[in-house]
Amino acid sequence: MSGFEVVVLFCSTLLCFCFLRFLHKIWVAPTRLQAKWRSQGIRGPSYKFPHGNTKEISYMRSQFFDKPMDISHYVHDLFPRLHPHVYAWTKVYGRNFICWHGSKCQLFVTEVELSKEILMNRDDAFRKMDMEGYLRKLLGEALTTNEGQKWAKVRKLADRSFHSESLNSMVPEMRSSVAKMLDKWGSYQGREIDVFKEFGMLTIEVISRTAFGSSCMDGKHIFEMKEKLAALAAKNLHKVRVPGISLVVRSDDEVEAERLEQRINGSIMEKVREREREGELGSDYLGQLIRISHESDVKKRITRHQLIDEVKAIYGAGNYTTTSLLGWCVVLLATHTEWQDRAREEVKETFGGNIPDFEGIARLKIMNMIINECLRLYPPALSLTRTVAKETKIGQLCLFPNTNIFISVLALHHNPRIWGDDVHLFKPERFAHGVVEATHNNAAAFIPFGIGPRTCVGLNFSTNEAKIALSMILHNYKFVLSPNYVHCPIENIILVPRNGIQVILEKI
Ligand code: HEM
């Protein structure tokens, strides 16, 4: 055989091999996996090459995207609107079903017991999903997504930084950020103001001051870039790209995302170097992160790259979510003025004319019920995601690797079997005797902050911040929705109002 023939034979064998691998990935493996799920009674729309079911999902979602929602009858039925595919397919295929993102299998879970078993698992059977593309740039590889040692060493540090003693010392910073916002509101009396924008600024200022000792301007700069990146991520969420194609041709959105990522990283590194130059690392969360990046023990140390990502993660996790919570609380209180009055009365009784303090905040019962009911109807994080790391049995059900799991928080929070026929109504009184009673002994059906080892680090931080902000607003203002407000909740990574939240303020 001539040298040329050997090369041709080698190339054609290689091509054949690549083709067979490709065929296996896009056809054999998905079809087999689908059959395995079906054999256990877990059904779903059939796998389609190359998009899976993403086209149907995008179509269903587009039906609602810019359509306003009527809440004149106080019905907050968000599930069919925001997760139309989950709503429709649970009716056809049952409470848990599979569908396909390209050739990736997705298990959607809406059943309380199964959600709980997955989220509470400590055997490393279900891991955080690997973030790809835009989401990876947005969230980085940090606390929110890391696993094992890499996760554990920062989780301990974050728990300490955002736990109750540290929170006590953050109250003055939170109060003065709210006071600054309310000063500005003074010039809006009787006029319309978009409180969603205001809360965006407030929460970025609070997280900047308390966790990173930064001025609002530093935080705002990072926040604005992250917002643009989040918009790109949301726009491309249901698009399927041929694997590896980005290495050859990059879309305009990918180029823009890369540029934003580099600028965000640059801004954070500047802040870190500034502290290192001054030799004052600080005792806040950023200071703690810089310290462990200097650790001599490799096991305890984090890399510069991880440090940047950890900062990004807290900026991302800490402010969009709390902005969402505050925004929807105001919408609900503006439309249910009896609850606005009750909350104001409680604030007066608890603090008199004084500014909110840490002990008083813990005693706000009505406010707590309102916040819980708001988090139930409008959970900022609509789904929790995991991936099956190893074959695992839960009851009779076997969960297979190569499957991503989506637990629909929205489906759990809007399930009439758990919450009753008035499930779509704003009724804070359902939480009067705690979560266990509100859920009829199904506490895992109320998971706005998750459950299990990966529960939200900022749970107390954000509820304290929300209570302080709402107390100070209620003490100073009555508010109603502006006639220009259009109720249009959309999922932009988290739950946000599409057109802001315009209210009219009346000074008390
Ligand atoms: C209303 C406000 C908030 C909501 C609804 C919320 C929701 C959540 C949820 C649902 C998770 C769990 C995700 C999962 O199990 O996969 C989570 C995790 C996390 N949250 Fe929050 N969050 C809020 C505020 C905050 C704040 C203020 C911070 C930072 C100070 C924060 C930092 C984090 C971090 C770091 C994680 C990852 C924890 C881990 O995986 O170990 N969150 N959050």
TrEMBL record:
Pfam families: p450
Record bears the keyword Transmembrane: yes
Domain of life: Eukaryota
A Gene Ontology molecular function term of the record: heme binding
InterPro entries, per database record: Cyt_P450, Cyt_P450_CS, Cyt_P450_E_grp-I, Cyt_P450_sf, Cytochrome_P450_Monooxygen
Gene3D superfamilies: Cytochrome P450
Name of the protein in its database record: Cytochrome P450 CYP749A37
Species assigned in the record: Salvia miltiorrhiza (Chinese sage)
